[in-house]
Amino acid sequence: MRTFHSRHKILYCAIMAILSPGELIRSQLVSRVRGLLNDVEGGQQPVPLSDEALFERDSPIRLVHADVVSMMVGGVRSLLLQMLHPHALQGVLDHSDFRNDMHGRLRRTARFIAVTTFGHRDDAEVAIARVNRIHEQVGGTLPDGAPYTARDPATLAWVHVAEATSFLEAYLRFVRPAMPIADQDTYFRQFAVIARKLGADPVPETRREAEALLRNMRPILRGSPAAREVAQLVLDQKPKGTPPAAQQILGAAAVDLLPPYARAMLALRKPGFAAFPARLATRAAGRTLRWAFRQS
Predict the structure, then answer these.
(1) pLDDT score, position 4
(2) Contact 183, 175 (CB under 8 A)
(3) How far is residue 38's CA from residue 42's CA, in Å, rounded to a whole number?
(4) CB-based contacts of 63, cutoff 8 Å, min separation 6
(5) 123, 255 Cβ separation under 8 angstroms
(6) ∠ Cα 79 139 235 (to 5°)
(7) Domain count across the chain
(8) Same structural domain for residues 30 and 142?
(9) Model confidence over 125-145: pLDDT tens digits?
(10) What count of other Cβ atoms lies within 10 Å of the Cβ of residue 15?
């Protein structure tokens, strides 16, 4: 009889823990975020974590890419930077349905990052091969008549360094400001593995090399009307299930993180007084989601 009651007590405690307000809130948050990042309605499931991924658990790239909020901010920042490269911009204008499906484009990018960072290495290789096949079909002519192709190593290098520096800068600001330089360099070396498989060249392997590449590519960048249009579309997007205020905060945080030359070329104003509350709200959202996903 004592054993019977003990088992029921354990079961009762387990049910109460599951149904407690804190656990319900945690479950709802996780569900909302997974719905935002995955095509749940189409049957898509989150990428399962693998111990046979390209990168080991708790290594810098997995820590940086695991933080949902800073990755959202970094993702917006990277798109804004990428549109300054005429070849990358023209590829989007000619071969992407971004005007009608900006959320879908961002979701597909997030999925690729998740698979190549956390998924089984075989799944990562399949995803990389798929992107390479798509890039083979992307090409055309710039407004000045010059040809472009998505397989151009230098263009791919710009897309990569824009992503890597943006993800890391957002992580440093909103999650781990004191991240050692050695860990930051490891992050670039790890992310370089994916960039090389996609055909990028040159690929930075340290923070210093990444900063040098950004400087060297500055003369190529252009703040065209088309780049400004795409930038505004990125900032004005309203993903299903995301409160407008949250999207505005993430956008303000991303613009605040942009280098001054990029803001000037895209005709974006520094958030000013709005930057401080945006930073506070972004940090608070990050802490909340790390709690929801049980991340330390």
Answers:
(1) 46
(2) no
(3) 9
(4) 171, 176
(5) no
(6) 20
(7) 2
(8) no
(9) 999 999 999 999 999 999 999
(10) 10
